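Let us practice reading a record.
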Amino acid sequence: MKKTKKHWAFILTSIALIVGLLSGCAGGGTQNGEQSAPENNANQVTLKLHFWYNEDQDNWKTVYSEFQKKYPNIKIEAVTAGDNNANEYLKRLDLASASGDQIDIMMFSNATYYSQRVTANMLEPLNDYIAKDGFKMEDEYYMDTTYGDTVYGLPAKKNIYFVMMNKNHLDEAGLSVPKDWTWDEFLDYSKKLTKGEGASKRYGTYFHTFSQYYHMALSNQPDDYFLVKPDGKTLNIDSPLVRRSLEIRQQAEMVDKSATPYSETMSQKLNYRPQYFNEKTSMILTGDFMIPEAGGSDKVPANFPTVFAPYPKVNKTDPISTITAGDIMAVSSKSKHKQEAYDFVRWYTTEGIQLQGKYMPAWKKADLNKVIDTLIASSKTPDMIDKETLMYTMTNSISQKYNIPLPFNEELEVAFKKDVEKFLLGEADMDATINSAVQKAQEIIENSK
């Protein structure tokens, strides 16, 4: 664990020394994302936008052209592998930063990656820009990306989590679409939806390898939902919610055998999209980034209708709360065109993301019904998406408070996952798993000091 921590600290320190914060901030634009085009269009500015998305698949070229209609002197060029791999993108981003490559705008798929680059001094503080634009984060966005007392990036897309369900499988099993349910009821559905044996077996559900699936009952809590509390030293690992999360996985995968076994997920390198659309599983806990895909795509067609249910609860009396996550777009502290980069960030996170028609905006002033219609229409087969259950789920799910995790949160997640893997493979019981995870987490916290 110490080697891992020192390795990460070395990377952050190296980047901080090479990159450094450049001085000078200037405000600009106007309120509510309604900026006017700069007066002088003679000086063409080219901004380099670093991210992981596929430009064609996710309509980014539409974003660039629409932005240039308002800002004809600003051109956007993407730096992306186009493989939708956010983790590999971060390695390329850090290398580009350390090498002195042009970076004007960058994106992060979660708040941990954002806080890590804040501490590496890679991001430009935006407080002065926001003050001149005359808005407050809590009034404009569902996600407040303030770190300490400074905003270093604006939230772009917002993900809430729900359960996607194969309507044909529900009908076959005589099950209705849940509107308010517990994890016990989820497990019961999973068991009833499971069918067949051997290679042709269809599982009721599938849990992917993302970190939230290792502590699902904790992940959607209204607040205090990380493995470590905000004080940076008190752990949530040996808690009823984490233990309940492990019980859910154990019940589904080992006892009921209604979820794809973890050994199969790892050995076959399974992914949630093919598992769901190839009808190897009947329901998946996932985010609203899957709304357009629910109607299929050229690569993965949808041959059945999808309905939606809220995130399951631990107790019947709990509120219907959901994970709140999403992308954050930031201005590079090393950019030579900070004002222009901010103009794009502000425009994209308000107006641009809606014109893109691929994601749920984190901007509060977006029209939810219109956004949903656009997302459904962008699907290959819109008729396969049930809007009624989707709208019910979206409007009745309470988003948790958006918190920025401490920079070492990722290291905690990686260590925790390794212990849970042994549990899911039957190599350790729950107490041994929790005790080992607590010990490793305490070492990480101690090293972080």
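A brief commentary: The CA atoms of residues 201 and 228 lie 38 Å apart.
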